[in-house]
Amino acid sequence: MSEDYRLMWKNLGLNLEAHDMLLGVLGNAYKDIYLSQKERPEGMAYFDFVMSEVHGLRIKELLDEKAAGRKIVGAYCVFVPEEIVLAANATLVGLCSGADFAIEEVEKLLPRNTCALIKSAFGFKLGKVCPYLESADMIVGENTCDGKKKAYETLGQLVSNLYVMDLPQVKTQNGRALLKAEYFQFKAAVEKLTGKAITADSLKAAIQTVNAKRKAIHRLSALRQADPAPISGLDALLANQVFFYDNPARFTASVNKICDELEKRVEEKKGAFPARTPRLLISGCPQAVPNWKLPFIIETSGAVIVGEESCVGERGTRNLTAETGNTVETMMEAIVDRYFQVDCAIFTPNPDRLAHIEQMAAQYKADGVIHYGLQFCQPYLMEAIPVEKALEKKNIPCLRIETDYSMEDAGQLKTRIEAFIEQIKG
Ligand code: BJ8
Questions:
Q1: pTM greater than 0.90 (yes/no)
Q2: Cis peptide bond prior to 228, omega within 30° of 0
Q3: Which of 130, 206, 300, 347 meets the CB 3.0–4.6 Å disulfide criterion with 124?
Q4: What is the pLDDT of residues 187-232, one digit of tens each?
Q5: Distance 228 CA to ligand 1 centre (A)
Q6: Where on the phi/psi map is residue 195: left (φ > 0), alpha (ψ -120 to 50), or beta?
Q7: How far is the CA of 114 from the centre of ligand 1 (A)?
């Protein structure tokens, strides 16, 4: 951190000792995983800075916004519409956590066989190490998988500002009606929180702001179709992770700047890895900061990741919200339409996700797919089997990985991934 933020963290109620430890581990991991990469685009310096200040400058900015009367809304899922939050004069930040913390404490409240993502969210609260969570005026949970919806009952006892949104599990008219009702209820709750009514103008501007972020990410993704891939999967994942934290306009400008650089790289056939490096698509559970284990292993085993079919990736960002509406009602309908397309594995049946994986594999010219499932995540682990079968029918090799946030299985994973890459090369 370039400044001393200790007083700010103390005032937020963080456990300074535990927080120092977390930042120490995070800093070392970033150095070993990110800064050791070769041939990085120069524009990644922005993301290096963002990460070095992720608990510092960005938190200070959020606290400055709060001091100026804005509210902060924290969310754990891509179903929480940023458009509604922005339109009501609030800022949305992602709360999903990608590292184990205070596990012993967590396992007093949650069963051991809960996925690492949920446990991590609890660990960050119980360990008092997440300044985003502590800055939030409203924390939004959503009834998605069974693990999350039951865990929010317990989280509600740990925080005073939890708002739980119900979500459909089927893509039917009734399902859409439920989502619409929930989004209108959420709109009312955010308006109450900020004291600002959403207007057609504020909603339109918010839709444009969020779409601009998505379009920048689409541009970045499209450039990854080139061989050699102009950017590593690790760096592209980082941009997708920062999507949830950064100031939206600054994020959009920074990603577009990297894309300008990558376009030149593509023209010059300059890559993050040599041409014809085996290309892999990752599909499955979200990889929240600082969960870089799998991409690090893959990209140090002789392959490059060219796409993420994930909520921290294309599942979360692929669709735009229509900008054609002129009334709050029509724009809310457009928001419902946009989010109802998210093909999370909590939906049953969920054929769109399989179609999307196949489409991405073709579009990014992937030689194979690694299905990433977190241990105890039933929705994604269950879907992994039909996904693998369907891909194999199309002669797309698929490797199913089931893992957690610990490094205990890193050696074993590396052996399996190296063998998979050899198979692809063969
Ligand atoms: S829209 S993927 S962000 S719910 S890994 S907690 S599913 S047991 S994260 Fe998700 Fe929204 Fe869906 Fe996306 Fe449960 Fe699985 Fe854990 Fe998960």
A1: yes
A2: yes
A3: 130
A4: 999 999 999 999 999 999 999 999 999 999 999 999 999 999 999 9
A5: 32
A6: left
A7: 12
